[in-house]
Amino acid sequence: MSRSTDLVSRILDIVGTKADAGVYVRTGTSALTRFANSFIHQNVSDDVVHVHLTVALDGRVASGSTTSTTDDALNSLVDRLVTVAAMQPVDSEFPGFGGSVEAQEIDHFDEETSRADPNARAEIVKTFVGAGDGLLAAGMCGVDSYTDAYGNTAERFIDGRMTRVVLDGIHQTETSAGSGHSAGQSLGSIDATGAGRLASHRAILGINAFDTKPGEYEVVLAPEAMATIAQFLTGYGFSGKSYNEGMSFVTLNEQRFDPTVHLKDDVSDPRGLGIPFDAEGTPRKTIAVIDGGATPSLLHDRRTATKAGNVSTGHASVTGEAWDNRPSGRNLFFGEGTWSEEDLIAHVERGIYVSTFNYCRVLDPKTVVVTGLTRNGTFMIENGAITGAVTNLRFTQSFIDALGPGRVKGIGANGRFAAGEDESGTVHTPTFHLASWNFTGGAAG
Amino acid sequence: MFDRAEMGVLAAIDAGATYADARAVVAKEESIEVQNQHLETLDVSERIGVGVRALIGSSWGFASTGDLSNVGLRSCGELAAAIAKASAAVAGPLLEFADVPVVEAFWETPHIENPFDVPTTEKVDMLVDLTATMQRVEGINLAYGMVAGWDTRKWFVSSIGHRIEQHIVEAGGFYTATAIGEHETQIRSYPQSFGQYETGGYETIRKWNYSDHAERIAEEAVALLTAPEMEERQTNLILESSQVALQIHESVGHAIELDRILGWEAAFAGTSHLELDKLGTHRYGSELMNITADATIPGALGTFGYDDEGSPASCVDIVKNGIWVGVLSGRDSAAVAGLRPGGMVRGDGYNRIPMVRMTNVGLLPGDGTLDDIISDTDDGVYMGTNRSWSIDDRRLNFQFGCEIGYEIKNGKLGRMLKNPTYTGITPQFWGSLDRLAGESEWTHWGVPNCGKGQPVQVAHTGHSASPARFAGVRVGVKG
User: Fold this and answer.
1) Global ipTM
2) Residue of chain A minimizing CA distance to B401
3) Which of A176, A202, A228 is the last residue of a domain?
4) One domain, residues A139 and A179
5) Inter-residue contact B190 to B171 (CB < 8 Å)
6) End position of a domain, from candidates A202, A224, A243
């Protein structure tokens, strides 16, 4: 029995017959090494214990969490929630707790990585820094190892585990910066040399950047930029909560995107980085949120599914994660094409290559019109080749329209986990060539 | 809990640390959300643990645990030291640590009603009533309200003798009315978008008289659906004070963080357009621009007694008559820059390493009122309540959107305008500040969701502001 499953059992024992209840427990280690100016300046490790309990008394619901596992703390949590729930109005939309389920045989876990010490992270950092050949490096290497368990008074009990390693970094010259990234289930899957070389290549290419006129440009969007698009479309559009509230752009099965676009949430993919069930203990189903340009299905938790006359797809969010107030995708995979990134660039007459977006914010959630900037490598493409660097640009662009019918000119075969705006390691995507992107100005004015 | 923190510090020192400190934290949070008269969330959370920071040579290590047993805390302190040793594999220059007074102290947020002592039923009933009021306005699809309270107790111990206990109490909330059109949504919020939060008890919520504004904001949200778009042009821009507060947060507060200036946040949060050798000479804005970082303002969200390095709360000049004169700093960053530490280092809960964070970074008031400013404006636009915010990694190029706008003609508010936006470059924008309302409209706005660091930390920051006018700003940016 793992520490998490033991805690679930202890808490359900404490609840006893006082209420119906469901409890989600995460235990493990979250460690992260940050570096800047080419040295490690912050280096942390958290012994993670997170207990999240929901109780229901005849439809009166309250939830709460604690990081303490003493008998006093757990008894206090249960008593407090039962007392508070009893005083609340009946939650007419509470779907109840789900019954027993069969666990999927998915185990995105690497034993060696789960035992990694700070020296292993330091080695990865050292390799990334060294790949820059003297450029100034900054970034982070994070290693997470979790065992999660869920149990409830309706006989549902499920557990699983995951390891995840993420390396995000930049190399800098006096006037430019370039980024490189790598993520996977294990320490061995991290290509620190490749990420470091890509970052330094982009940084050197970025020297002597010039201002370019704002306007509509063809773009080649690297995986980091595409990851942000996936996260925004999913959060604002493909979440059952947004859809139920009328805030989503989605009309089911309507062709809103180019037929070449496919996006699914798929924890069963062997490359996946997540726990195979959600915060309600529901096994995560593979859901295509874009299939040939249309949206056949949405991401639901038990509450949004009930309201929509559907069943949960296993996408209830764990408290504290990005988009934790709604069902969200945490194992997103864009369908890959057949082109190399060089091929995609070769088909651009005049356009912009974007390594990363920065500080994206939605102006209108229903149209997913977003403003943001480019960062860490923005380059001019002319006659099929990168001809120089341009200074960072601001854009205002509907992410839906950008991938609209006829606007996807090519999709790369270079899929990998990428660091989007919200979180690293939740989106696997290749580079895309898009027909148009609306740049509104240069970052320097 | 002092003994728990001491256990972690001693273990780190025994394992070779030359300096160590630790915070034992018991943090309670209550969050209640109601949508369309329906209770969506009632969440009561508690985070209890100890975080230990250890310094060896020039390298830091930090470890945290919720296991408060002797074994757990010794292990945590030893891990912090081991991490510091591992950091030496990619070591930086010798780290100095600016001196601060060693104190034993207790500090508590002045408050009347601890938010946890107010019955949850009272809070739920208030939010249900508010959403009912908003839903009675035809055209409102989503009526939402939330209140939150925090009660945080911290015990800080350092290997040089600090013993500081603090009890910080915070509360706040907000509500919104959303009208959904065929191809757009319009939203209005009160007191401000994402909420108004302050240090203090539940009285900080009561004083905003929530029920007086629900019908008005609902009507405004519906009216916005049919209001004309703001025209793209350069004109006088008058900002309501909560938007001035966010402007300060994004284009001043983050830019003056010394860790950003030193490049320590380069890969994630970003750097700063400010260069240390121009401290004292760089013109940040017009003569009207006077900014302080003041962690001592009663009731403001960024107020405390001591920071998480044991430095006392301070009030520091940041911009004086438009000239940049100060930074936000901690003991290590200040030493590197050759400055005095400002006492502005805080960690999010027990399990995050303390880092440079804003306290209350505010714009000192001018004189007159918003009405005076509007009366003195022949042509311009007024914008209120933030809806979107985006700024580049050097805190230079920004674009903000607000919930509501009005045209101003011949000293009077005219038509309501939807989707108001403006864009600018930080020093030029602040250089165009030409009117600033006075103390009667000076508000201590609170931002409860300032993200920074990896793993991401959320800080509570304060920003005092009054309505202000900026000349020649590009507004109505559509793209």
Assistant:
1) 0.94
2) A363
3) A202
4) yes
5) no
6) A202
Share of chain B above pLDDT 70, in %: 100
Q: Contacts of residue B420 in chain A, CB cutoff 8 Å?
A: none
Look up residue B294 and give its amino acid: D
Q: Which residues of chain A have pLDDT under 70?
A: 320-324, 424-425, 443-445
User: By CA distance, what is B421's nearest residue in A?
Assistant: A363
Q: H helices of B152-213, where? A: 203-206
Number of residues that make up chain A: 445
Please check whether residues A197 and A244 belong to one and the same domain: no
Same structural domain, A395 and A280: yes
The alpha-carbon gap from B91 to the nearest alpha carbon of chain A, in Å, equals: 5
Q: What is the pLDDT of residues B245-265, one digit of tens each?
A: 999 999 999 999 999 999 999
State the DSSP code for A407.
-
Q: What is the pLDDT of residue A364?
A: 87
pLDDT digits (tens, 9 = 90+) for B302-350: 999 999 999 999 999 999 999 999 999 999 999 999 999 999 999 999 9
User: Please, are residues A55 and A63 in contact by the beta-carbon 8 Å criterion?
Assistant: yes
Average pLDDT over residues B279-308: 98
Instruction: For residue B1, give the amino acid letter.
Output: M
Q: Which residue of A has its CA nearest to B95?
A: A41
Query: Which residues are bridge partners to B52 per DSSP?
Result: B22, B63
- Could you say which of B66, B387, B391 has the minimum Cβ distance to residue A359? B391
Q: What average pLDDT does this structure show over B267-295?
A: 97
Please tell me the predicted confidence (pLDDT) of residue A424. Answer: 67
Angle between helices B70-87 and A118-130 (to 10 degrees): 20
What stretch(es) of chain B map to CATH 3.30.2290.10?
2-226
Contact A57, A86 (CB under 8 A): yes
Does position B29 have pLDDT exceeding 90, yes or no?
yes
Helix axes A192-205, A118-130, angle to 10 degrees: 40
User: Do A236 and A381 fall within a single domain?
Assistant: yes
Report how far apart, in Å, the C-alpha atoms of B126 and of each of B112, B170, B214, B296 are: 19, 19, 12, 31
Q: Coil, strand, or helix at residue B131?
A: helix
The pairing of beta strand B443-452 with beta strand B457-465: antiparallel
**Do A290 and A191 lie in a common domain?**
no
pLDDT at site A429: 97
- Domain span at residue A379? 209-445
* Distance, CA of A284 to CA of A276 (rounded, Å): 6
Contact assignment for A365 to B352 by CB distance below 8 Å: no
Structurally, chain A folds into a number of domains equal to 2
Task: Report the pLDDT averaged over residues B126-144.
Answer: 97
Q: Is A216 found in the same domain as A197?
A: no
The type of residue at A417 is F
Say if the Cβ atoms of B83 and A45 lie within 8 Å: yes
CATH superfamily of B2-226: PmbA/TldD superfamily (3.30.2290.10)
Q: Looking at the structure, tell me whether residues A75 and A122 fall in a common domain.
A: yes
Which residue among A88, A366, A440 places its CB closest to the CB of B184? A366
- Collect all residues with Cβ–Cβ distance below 8 Å to A322 and sequence separation of at least 6: A231, A235, A328, A422, A423, A426
- Residues 223 to 282 of B: which have CB under 8 A from any A CB? 262-268, 270
| The pLDDT of residue A87 | 85
Write out the two tokens for A36.
């800047």
pLDDT of residue B183: 86
Write the CATH number for A103. Answer: 3.30.2290.10
In this structure, the answer to whether residues A299 and A260 fall within a common structural domain is: yes
Residues contacting B2, CB < 8 A, separation 6+: B24, B155, B157, B163, B165
Question: Which residues, 6+ apart, have CB-to-CB distance to B380 below 8 Å?
Answer: B235, B236, B237, B238, B407, B408, B469
Report long-range pairs for B457-461 (Cβ below 8 Å, ≥24 apart).
Answer: B457/B347, B457/B348, B457/B352, B457/B355, B458/B348, B459/B346, B459/B348, B459/B357, B459/B358, B460/B150, B460/B170, B460/B197, B460/B301, B460/B302, B461/B249, B461/B253, B461/B301, B461/B302, B461/B357, B461/B358, B461/B359, B461/B360, B461/B361
